[in-house]
Amino acid sequence: MTEMSGGQAVIELLKAEQVRHIFGIVGSTFLDVLDVLYDDKSVEYINVRHEQGAAFMADGLARVTGTPAVCLVTSGPGATNLLTGIASAYVGHSPVVAISGGPTFGHYYKDAFQELDLISMFKPVTKLAMQVNKPERIPEIMHYALRSAMTGRKGPVFLDIPRDMLNDQVIQTEIVPPEYYRPEHPQLPHPEAIREAVQLLQQAERPLLLVGGGATWARANELVVRLSEQQALPMITAYGRNDAVPNAHLHYIGPLGRAGAPEAAAACRRADLLLVLGSRLGNFTTYYDQRYIQPGTRIVQIDIDSRDIARTYPVALGIQADAGETVVALLEGLSQTPVPATRAAWMQEAQDLRTKRQARLQGEANLNTLPLKPQRVYVELRRVLPPETIVTLDAGAAPAYGYDRLHFSHPRTFFTPLDLGGLGFAFPVALGAKLGRPGAPVLAIHGDGGFLMNAQELETAVRHGINVVTLVMNNNCWGSEKAYQKHFYNERYVGADIGNPRYDHFANLFGAQGYYVEHADQIGDTIQAALRCGKPAVVEIPIDPNEFPAPATATSRRG
Ligand SMILES: Cc1ncc(C[n+]2csc(CCOP(=O)(O)OP(=O)(O)O)c2C)c(N)n1
User: Which residues contact 16 (CB under 8 A, 6 or more apart)?
Assistant: First the structure.
């Protein structure tokens, strides 16, 4: 046992989980924790300009590393400002540990200064929300929180630590590595389930792999490709999960779902068996209807968490297990039997769809109108972004064109708000991702509306030297929503238009590097220069204000 202060215990417990950055804004409730970092420079406090930025940064860091990422903020408004970013981590299954210093324990339930029922507020967007009620329980409760964040399907947790649990407290504890308090071995599939899956796969004429984020969390991406190759299985990806498989692979058709590839949708409609690997078959992957997944298609759904297995679509077989372990078992189970002869025709069909998609996207190189169409911007991005580039997409219409148009080579390089659809996501998530993988180029893609929601973090980026490039496609409106008013309300626009500063000037004012591009032939060079400039950079491209994708619910204004 070692004697240490409560603040030191918090830091040491986080260091045992390889935590190197903590995001937040200074507050008097947790200064005992912060004070430890005065001497210990192995953990950096990234002091941000709005706690929402801190939560998104932690989400980005956790998504890129797969390890816990931490926010440390003050009580009341400091914590409520985190909520949207923590919701993002919840939807993205990011192991974010949100800690807020609280009022004195004995002042709870008195409406004390900055006292709010934070546990109740955070419960619906975390796997666990709790309070430390005795200083000596800090290690036990933090282990509980870390176990919850990191076990099974990962996700955020919230911890409220009343200030007197930290102030001048000395506790006895031993700092142990994670394997002492949380299981680290993956969950194996049941052998009988594997036998059934093998049978179903062999009976299928047109089996299709639908790969989701669970494959990446399980670090199973290469195994998925091996399964696809050995069994002649074409691949599509779930909404916002394009990086789950190498997009250059000839078996990859494209992304399913909202703003996805029509060719992936066509493959999904043709499949007689869907092997769903780590996808919850969520709203924007499936729309919960039969536009992609046909009633006759058999589904084998593999997920680490049973809650989403057969949640909307009945399954022929559900397997609750680690995606990687399940693929290993399937490879083994299928190794003795030849691939059915019918696969050749199906593979040909899949390859025709892949070729069709590539040709469609390349055709957009001819869109040379001014102001530029967002589709044209993506042609240039595909051309110049290095394969290891991490891209974060914001919500909004111009970013949404990226779902079908960006190209990924490696897992954990594409981060999207998923079904949260939260604006303001991309820039701070990119900052967190860059801290997790400093050697990778990082690009955040925003509309003008979404960028200004967290643009204040440019100051954080400059001060901490976090050099990400942000592309702002400016159409001077809330385009994605304006699209609804255009399609369904006879262009009766209310609250749809906004004004903007020049974002290159805006960036320069913060000490970042600004660029402004109007012509397609300047985009590639500018993005490359921005990635190399050695500063955070913002590239503004004015885009066609009348170019919107069809609204998500194109057939009716309800739903
Ligand atoms: C936090 C938040 N507020 C509101 C919305 C609703 N919303 C979705 S897209 C959108 C417009 C986005 O505009 P912009 O970022 O400029 O991109 P554009 O659609 O114009 O390309 C709005 C208001 C949302 N998704 N998230």
Answer: 175, 176, 177, 178
Task: Give the number of the atom of ligand 1 that is nearest the alpha carbon of residue 473.
Answer: 21
CA of 483 to the centre of ligand 1 (A): 11
- Cα–ligand 1 centroid distance for 69 (angstroms): 27
Q: Decide whether any atom of ligand 1 lies within 6 Å of the 513 Cβ.
A: no
Q: Where are the beta strands (DSSP E) in 49-119?
A: 69-73, 96-102
Picking from 385, 318, 477, 459, the residue whose alpha carbon sits closest to that of residue 25 is 459
Instruction: Provide the 3-class DSSP secondary structure of residue 327.
Output: helix
Q: Is the pLDDT of residue 63 over 80?
A: yes
| pLDDT score at 559 | 47
Angle at 323 between CA 158 and CA 95, to 5 degrees: 15
Q: Is the pLDDT of residue 223 over 80?
A: yes
Higher pLDDT, 531 or 552: 531
Q: What is the DSSP letter of 519?
A: S
189 vs 216, 234, 268, 302, CA distance in Å?
17, 23, 25, 9
Question: How far, in Å, CA of 226 to CA of 220, rounded?
Answer: 10
Q: In sequence order, what E strands does 74-186 have? A: 96-102, 128-131, 157-162, 170-173
Q: What is the mean pLDDT of residues 141-146?
A: 98
Element (H, E) at 273: strand 273-277
Question: Would you state the pLDDT for residue 526?
Answer: 98
Q: Structure pTM?
A: 0.97
Question: Does ligand 1 have an atom closer than 6 angstroms to the CB of 480?
Answer: yes
Alpha helices in 294-447 (DSSP H): 323-334, 343-363, 374-384, 397-400, 402-405, 426-436
pLDDT digits (tens, 9 = 90+) for 500-529: 999 999 999 999 999 999 999 999 999 999
- Which atom of ligand 1 lies nearest, measured to the CA of 543? 21
- Burial tier of 227 (Cβ tally within 10 Å: 0-12, 13-18, 19+): buried
Alpha-carbon dihedral of residues 371, 374, 376, 382, nearest 10 degrees? 140
Ligand 1 within 6 A of CB of 421: yes
Confidence at residue 556, expressed as pLDDT on a 0 to 100 scale: 55
